[in-house]
Structure formats: C-alpha cells, structure tokens
Design brief:
The protein is mainly β and 122 residues long. It has strands spanning 3-7, 10-13, 18-25, 33-39, 46-51, 58-60, 68-73, 78-83, 92-99, 102-103, 106-107, 111-112, 116-121. The strands form three sheets. Strands 2, 4, 5, 6, 9, 12 and 13 form a seven-stranded mixed sheet that branches.
Amino acid sequence: QVQLVESGGGSVQAGASLRLSCAASGLTLSTYNMGWIRQAPGKEREFVARVNWSGTSTVYAESVKGRFTISRDNAKNSVYLQMNSLRPEDTAIYYCAATKIISQGQPVWQYWGQGIQVTVSS
C-alpha cells in the first residue's frame, strides 16, 4: 500500500520560511517523479513544483519561482519543499504527489498524500 505523508506545515508570518517533508512508503521513490500541489480555500488545486526521479530536473510555478525549492533524498524515500519569503497568498493545503506517468510533457499524478495546512498571515 502506497503512502505519502506530509509534515512540516504550520502558521507563520509573511516573510518567514517553512520546510515541508513528504515521506513515502510502499513504493521505490527513486523511480518516481515527485511534486507538490496546493489548494487554497475556494480555489482549484494548483501545481507548485516537481522534480524528476533522479533530482536532476525541476519545474516551478511562476508564483513560487525563486522562493521555493524542491529536493529529494531517494535514500530516505523523502521529498522536500523549502519555502522562503512566504506570502499570505501561499496559504493553502499542500499535497505531495508521485507518478511514473508523463503525458504530453505533463505529469499525471498517481499517488497523493493527505495534505498539510500552511497558513501565512500578514
């Protein structure tokens, strides 16, 4: 049974930093592309960042580029999202996701975590 478990969320002031972690079990993380997706209240899910299976390629949403960094440690079966210079508009539930499926250059996420809340106040 595949499980992705997020941790590290919380409530912070604007300008602060948080580091989200995603621990995977039931799959060999090193063979999966990994990503972070978020959903703000009343909005649809929004792609944040992704990293390929080897960690050599990353993609970011324009809204987080330069502030967020995705990384992975395949030996620890974990993926991370370092979030700096947080803004109130970053407030959302953040989901970790995994996939081997890339369709027309875009990942089709196969597995999802339960999500973790990040709240940024001004």
